[in-house]
Amino acid sequence: MTSRASDFHIEPTPNGYQLRLRVDGMLFTLDSVNVELGEAMVNCMMVMGKLVTYRKDIPQEGRITFNLEASRKLELRLAVMPTVHGLRAVVRMPADLYQPQQISELMLPPSAVDFLEGFAHADNGLLAVTGPAGSGKTTVIYTLLEHMARTQPGVSIVTLEDPIERTLKGVTQIEIKPNGELDYHKALRSMMRQDPQVLFVGEIRDAETASITIQAALTGHRLLCTMHAGTPLAAFTRLLEMKIHRYQITSSVYGLLNQRLVRRTMNGKYSGRMPVAQFVRMNDAIKQALADDVSTTTKLEGAIQNSPGFFSL
Protein backbone atom coordinates (compact mmCIF):
# COMPACT_ATOMS: atom_id res chain seq x y z
CA MET A 1 0.00 0.00 0.00
CA THR A 2 2.80 2.45 0.91
CA SER A 3 4.25 2.25 -2.62
CA ARG A 4 1.07 3.85 -3.99
CA ALA A 5 0.89 6.65 -1.42
CA SER A 6 0.57 10.17 -2.79
CA ASP A 7 0.70 12.10 0.52
CA PHE A 8 2.00 11.65 4.08
CA HIS A 9 0.12 13.45 6.88
CA ILE A 10 1.32 14.31 10.39
CA GLU A 11 -1.88 15.46 12.09
CA PRO A 12 -2.08 16.90 15.64
CA THR A 13 -4.91 15.73 17.90
CA PRO A 14 -5.76 16.44 21.56
CA ASN A 15 -3.87 13.27 22.55
CA GLY A 16 -0.88 13.32 20.22
CA TYR A 17 -0.15 13.05 16.51
CA GLN A 18 -1.54 10.69 13.90
CA LEU A 19 0.64 9.51 11.02
CA ARG A 20 -1.50 8.89 7.94
CA LEU A 21 -1.03 8.02 4.26
CA ARG A 22 -3.27 8.89 1.33
CA VAL A 23 -3.52 5.89 -0.96
CA ASP A 24 -5.85 5.80 -3.97
CA GLY A 25 -7.59 8.90 -2.65
CA MET A 26 -8.29 7.44 0.81
CA LEU A 27 -6.52 8.25 4.10
CA PHE A 28 -5.18 5.36 6.18
CA THR A 29 -3.74 5.70 9.69
CA LEU A 30 -0.27 4.16 10.06
CA ASP A 31 0.47 4.96 13.68
CA SER A 32 -0.04 7.37 16.56
CA VAL A 33 2.79 9.10 18.45
CA ASN A 34 2.93 11.33 21.52
CA VAL A 35 2.98 15.12 21.32
CA GLU A 36 6.73 15.46 21.86
CA LEU A 37 7.64 13.04 19.07
CA GLY A 38 5.05 14.50 16.69
CA GLU A 39 6.28 18.04 17.24
CA ALA A 40 9.87 16.88 16.74
CA MET A 41 8.95 15.21 13.44
CA VAL A 42 7.23 18.36 12.15
CA ASN A 43 10.13 20.55 13.30
CA CYS A 44 12.66 18.27 11.58
CA MET A 45 10.69 18.46 8.32
CA MET A 46 10.56 22.26 8.58
CA VAL A 47 14.35 22.38 8.92
CA MET A 48 14.78 20.08 5.91
CA GLY A 49 12.31 22.18 3.93
CA LYS A 50 14.12 25.42 4.89
CA LEU A 51 11.05 26.84 6.63
CA VAL A 52 11.08 29.33 9.51
CA THR A 53 10.91 27.03 12.51
CA TYR A 54 10.11 29.72 15.10
CA ARG A 55 6.97 30.82 13.23
CA LYS A 56 4.29 28.44 14.45
CA ASP A 57 1.42 30.81 13.67
CA ILE A 58 1.49 30.98 9.85
CA PRO A 59 1.14 28.47 7.02
CA GLN A 60 4.39 27.72 5.18
CA GLU A 61 5.40 25.74 2.12
CA GLY A 62 8.75 24.34 1.08
CA ARG A 63 10.57 21.52 -0.65
CA ILE A 64 12.67 18.70 0.78
CA THR A 65 15.37 17.52 -1.63
CA PHE A 66 17.25 14.22 -1.49
CA ASN A 67 20.29 13.58 -3.68
CA LEU A 68 20.17 10.13 -5.25
CA GLU A 69 22.59 8.15 -7.36
CA ALA A 70 23.60 9.26 -10.88
CA SER A 71 22.99 12.95 -10.05
CA ARG A 72 19.26 12.32 -9.61
CA LYS A 73 17.28 14.36 -7.12
CA LEU A 74 14.11 13.47 -5.28
CA GLU A 75 11.88 16.43 -4.37
CA LEU A 76 9.07 16.31 -1.83
CA ARG A 77 6.65 19.20 -1.35
CA LEU A 78 6.02 20.18 2.26
CA ALA A 79 3.08 22.22 3.56
CA VAL A 80 2.71 23.21 7.22
CA MET A 81 -0.44 24.70 8.76
CA PRO A 82 -1.12 25.84 12.37
CA THR A 83 -4.14 24.23 14.06
CA VAL A 84 -5.67 24.46 17.52
CA HIS A 85 -3.64 21.41 18.61
CA GLY A 86 -0.35 22.30 16.93
CA LEU A 87 1.31 22.32 13.52
CA ARG A 88 -0.07 20.00 10.86
CA ALA A 89 2.35 18.86 8.15
CA VAL A 90 1.63 17.22 4.80
CA VAL A 91 4.30 15.88 2.47
CA ARG A 92 3.42 15.31 -1.19
CA MET A 93 5.26 12.30 -2.53
CA PRO A 94 7.33 12.90 -5.69
CA ALA A 95 5.02 12.53 -8.65
CA ASP A 96 7.64 11.03 -10.95
CA LEU A 97 7.71 7.90 -8.80
CA TYR A 98 4.18 6.91 -9.76
CA GLN A 99 3.07 9.14 -12.62
CA PRO A 100 2.73 7.76 -16.17
CA GLN A 101 5.42 8.70 -18.65
CA GLN A 102 3.48 8.02 -21.87
CA ILE A 103 -0.01 9.07 -23.00
CA SER A 104 -0.81 5.41 -23.53
CA GLU A 105 -0.14 4.81 -19.80
CA LEU A 106 -2.92 7.17 -18.67
CA MET A 107 -5.43 4.28 -18.83
CA LEU A 108 -7.73 6.37 -21.00
CA PRO A 109 -9.77 4.75 -23.79
CA PRO A 110 -8.04 4.64 -27.19
CA SER A 111 -10.32 7.36 -28.58
CA ALA A 112 -9.28 9.74 -25.78
CA VAL A 113 -5.60 8.92 -26.39
CA ASP A 114 -6.09 9.75 -30.08
CA PHE A 115 -7.78 13.00 -29.03
CA LEU A 116 -4.80 14.04 -26.89
CA GLU A 117 -2.25 13.02 -29.52
CA GLY A 118 -4.23 15.00 -32.08
CA PHE A 119 -3.89 18.13 -29.96
CA ALA A 120 -0.18 17.46 -29.46
CA HIS A 121 0.32 17.82 -33.22
CA ALA A 122 -2.23 20.58 -33.83
CA ASP A 123 -1.19 24.00 -35.11
CA ASN A 124 -2.99 25.99 -32.44
CA GLY A 125 -5.96 25.97 -30.07
CA LEU A 126 -6.90 25.60 -26.42
CA LEU A 127 -7.24 22.27 -24.64
CA ALA A 128 -8.92 22.49 -21.24
CA VAL A 129 -8.75 19.59 -18.80
CA THR A 130 -11.61 19.81 -16.31
CA GLY A 131 -12.79 18.00 -13.23
CA PRO A 132 -12.87 18.39 -9.43
CA ALA A 133 -9.76 18.63 -7.26
CA GLY A 134 -7.80 15.38 -7.19
CA SER A 135 -9.22 14.07 -10.46
CA GLY A 136 -5.87 13.74 -12.23
CA LYS A 137 -5.97 16.91 -14.32
CA THR A 138 -2.31 17.79 -13.73
CA THR A 139 -1.25 14.20 -14.43
CA VAL A 140 -2.83 14.38 -17.89
CA ILE A 141 -1.28 17.78 -18.61
CA TYR A 142 2.22 16.75 -17.50
CA THR A 143 2.12 13.54 -19.50
CA LEU A 144 1.00 15.45 -22.57
CA LEU A 145 3.70 18.09 -22.11
CA GLU A 146 6.37 15.40 -21.75
CA HIS A 147 5.08 13.74 -24.92
CA MET A 148 5.29 17.03 -26.82
CA ALA A 149 8.78 17.84 -25.52
CA ARG A 150 10.02 14.36 -26.42
CA THR A 151 8.45 14.14 -29.89
CA GLN A 152 8.87 17.81 -30.88
CA PRO A 153 12.29 18.86 -29.50
CA GLY A 154 12.37 22.06 -31.57
CA VAL A 155 9.20 23.45 -29.98
CA SER A 156 9.31 26.10 -27.23
CA ILE A 157 7.15 24.90 -24.30
CA VAL A 158 6.50 27.11 -21.27
CA THR A 159 4.38 26.49 -18.17
CA LEU A 160 2.94 28.88 -15.56
CA GLU A 161 2.15 26.89 -12.43
CA ASP A 162 1.06 27.36 -8.83
CA PRO A 163 2.98 25.41 -7.62
CA ILE A 164 5.31 23.41 -9.87
CA GLU A 165 4.54 19.78 -9.07
CA ARG A 166 7.64 18.27 -10.71
CA THR A 167 10.28 19.30 -13.21
CA LEU A 168 9.82 18.41 -16.86
CA LYS A 169 12.74 17.86 -19.22
CA GLY A 170 12.67 20.16 -22.24
CA VAL A 171 10.06 22.47 -20.66
CA THR A 172 10.57 25.96 -19.22
CA GLN A 173 8.61 26.06 -15.96
CA ILE A 174 7.70 29.26 -14.11
CA GLU A 175 6.23 29.20 -10.61
CA ILE A 176 3.51 31.73 -9.91
CA LYS A 177 3.30 33.28 -6.45
CA PRO A 178 -0.35 34.23 -5.73
CA ASN A 179 0.63 36.87 -3.17
CA GLY A 180 3.78 38.02 -4.93
CA GLU A 181 4.65 40.35 -7.77
CA LEU A 182 4.45 37.65 -10.45
CA ASP A 183 0.82 36.62 -10.88
CA TYR A 184 -0.85 34.82 -13.79
CA HIS A 185 -1.85 38.06 -15.51
CA LYS A 186 1.65 39.58 -15.53
CA ALA A 187 3.33 36.29 -16.38
CA LEU A 188 0.96 35.59 -19.28
CA ARG A 189 1.39 39.03 -20.80
CA SER A 190 5.15 38.84 -20.50
CA MET A 191 5.38 35.29 -21.84
CA MET A 192 3.59 36.24 -25.04
CA ARG A 193 6.71 38.30 -25.84
CA GLN A 194 8.98 35.31 -25.16
CA ASP A 195 8.05 33.47 -28.35
CA PRO A 196 6.41 30.36 -26.83
CA GLN A 197 4.69 27.85 -29.09
CA VAL A 198 3.06 25.76 -26.37
CA LEU A 199 1.89 27.35 -23.14
CA PHE A 200 0.37 25.71 -20.07
CA VAL A 201 -1.61 27.94 -17.72
CA GLY A 202 -2.03 26.11 -14.42
CA GLU A 203 -5.64 27.14 -13.92
CA ILE A 204 -8.12 29.61 -15.39
CA ARG A 205 -9.59 31.26 -12.31
CA ASP A 206 -10.84 34.65 -13.44
CA ALA A 207 -11.97 36.66 -16.44
CA GLU A 208 -8.63 38.39 -17.04
CA THR A 209 -6.67 35.12 -17.15
CA ALA A 210 -9.33 33.58 -19.40
CA SER A 211 -9.21 36.53 -21.79
CA ILE A 212 -5.42 36.50 -22.18
CA THR A 213 -5.41 32.71 -22.59
CA ILE A 214 -8.06 32.81 -25.29
CA GLN A 215 -6.25 35.62 -27.12
CA ALA A 216 -3.06 33.55 -27.12
CA ALA A 217 -4.90 30.57 -28.59
CA LEU A 218 -6.36 32.84 -31.28
CA THR A 219 -2.91 34.06 -32.32
CA GLY A 220 -1.44 30.70 -33.30
CA HIS A 221 -0.35 29.20 -29.98
CA ARG A 222 -1.20 25.87 -28.43
CA LEU A 223 -2.63 26.45 -24.96
CA LEU A 224 -3.29 23.95 -22.19
CA CYS A 225 -5.13 24.79 -18.99
CA THR A 226 -7.12 23.27 -16.17
CA MET A 227 -10.53 24.38 -14.95
CA HIS A 228 -12.63 23.36 -11.96
CA ALA A 229 -15.74 22.42 -13.90
CA GLY A 230 -17.82 19.31 -13.38
CA THR A 231 -18.80 18.80 -17.04
CA PRO A 232 -17.81 20.05 -20.50
CA LEU A 233 -21.05 22.07 -20.53
CA ALA A 234 -20.06 23.73 -17.25
CA ALA A 235 -16.64 24.59 -18.70
CA PHE A 236 -18.19 26.33 -21.72
CA THR A 237 -20.64 28.11 -19.40
CA ARG A 238 -17.80 29.35 -17.19
CA LEU A 239 -16.01 30.85 -20.19
CA LEU A 240 -19.22 32.64 -21.16
CA GLU A 241 -19.67 33.91 -17.59
CA MET A 242 -16.10 35.25 -17.75
CA LYS A 243 -17.24 37.47 -20.65
CA ILE A 244 -15.42 35.50 -23.34
CA HIS A 245 -17.20 36.17 -26.63
CA ARG A 246 -18.88 33.22 -28.31
CA TYR A 247 -16.93 33.66 -31.53
CA GLN A 248 -13.70 33.62 -29.53
CA ILE A 249 -14.65 30.31 -27.95
CA THR A 250 -15.58 28.69 -31.27
CA SER A 251 -12.37 29.96 -32.90
CA SER A 252 -9.93 29.12 -30.10
CA VAL A 253 -11.06 26.00 -28.24
CA TYR A 254 -9.66 22.74 -29.59
CA GLY A 255 -11.52 20.61 -27.10
CA LEU A 256 -12.26 19.66 -23.50
CA LEU A 257 -11.28 16.59 -21.50
CA ASN A 258 -13.30 15.97 -18.34
CA GLN A 259 -12.40 13.18 -15.97
CA ARG A 260 -12.70 11.58 -12.53
CA LEU A 261 -10.55 9.04 -10.73
CA VAL A 262 -12.41 6.00 -9.41
CA ARG A 263 -11.17 3.13 -7.28
CA ARG A 264 -10.87 -0.17 -9.11
CA THR A 265 -11.29 -3.67 -7.76
CA MET A 266 -9.03 -6.66 -8.31
CA ASN A 267 -9.95 -10.05 -6.86
CA GLY A 268 -12.66 -8.47 -4.74
CA LYS A 269 -10.37 -5.79 -3.23
CA TYR A 270 -9.63 -2.19 -4.05
CA SER A 271 -6.31 -1.76 -5.82
CA GLY A 272 -5.34 1.57 -7.33
CA ARG A 273 -7.46 4.05 -9.24
CA MET A 274 -8.31 4.58 -12.88
CA PRO A 275 -9.75 7.54 -14.80
CA VAL A 276 -13.28 7.76 -16.11
CA ALA A 277 -13.14 10.38 -18.83
CA GLN A 278 -15.23 12.12 -21.44
CA PHE A 279 -13.90 14.41 -24.14
CA VAL A 280 -15.41 16.87 -26.57
CA ARG A 281 -13.67 18.24 -29.63
CA MET A 282 -14.99 21.47 -31.10
CA ASN A 283 -17.26 20.70 -34.05
CA ASP A 284 -19.84 22.43 -36.24
CA ALA A 285 -22.78 21.49 -34.00
CA ILE A 286 -21.14 23.01 -30.91
CA LYS A 287 -20.14 26.11 -32.87
CA GLN A 288 -23.73 26.56 -34.05
CA ALA A 289 -25.09 26.12 -30.52
CA LEU A 290 -22.65 28.70 -29.18
CA ALA A 291 -23.50 31.12 -31.98
CA ASP A 292 -27.21 30.96 -31.14
CA ASP A 293 -28.08 33.33 -28.28
CA VAL A 294 -31.49 31.73 -27.68
CA SER A 295 -31.62 28.69 -25.36
CA THR A 296 -27.86 28.32 -25.68
CA THR A 297 -27.48 25.99 -22.73
CA THR A 298 -30.08 23.50 -23.97
CA LYS A 299 -28.76 23.43 -27.52
CA LEU A 300 -25.15 23.34 -26.38
CA GLU A 301 -25.84 20.44 -24.04
CA GLY A 302 -27.45 18.52 -26.88
CA ALA A 303 -24.55 19.24 -29.22
CA ILE A 304 -22.05 18.06 -26.60
CA GLN A 305 -23.95 14.87 -25.80
CA ASN A 306 -24.10 13.99 -29.47
CA SER A 307 -20.37 14.50 -29.96
CA PRO A 308 -18.10 11.49 -30.64
CA GLY A 309 -16.32 10.42 -27.48
CA PHE A 310 -18.89 11.88 -25.10
CA PHE A 311 -20.82 9.82 -22.61
CA SER A 312 -22.50 10.58 -19.28
CA LEU A 313 -20.41 10.11 -16.14
User: What would you give as the CATH superfamily of the largest domain?
Assistant: P-loop containing nucleotide triphosphate hydrolases
Radius of gyration: 21 Å
Number of distinct helices: 9
Q: State the strand order across the main sheet.
A: 9-8-10-11-7-12-13
Following the backbone from N to C, one meets helices and strands in this order, namely EEEHEEEHEHEEHEHEHHEEHH
In the CATH hierarchy, the architecture of the largest domain is 3-Layer(aba) Sandwich
Largest sheet: 7 strands, mixed
Low-confidence stretches: none
User: How far is the first residue's CA from the last residue's CA?
Assistant: 28 Å
Give a quick summary of the entry.
The protein has 9 helices and 13 strands. It is of the alpha/beta class and 313 residues long.
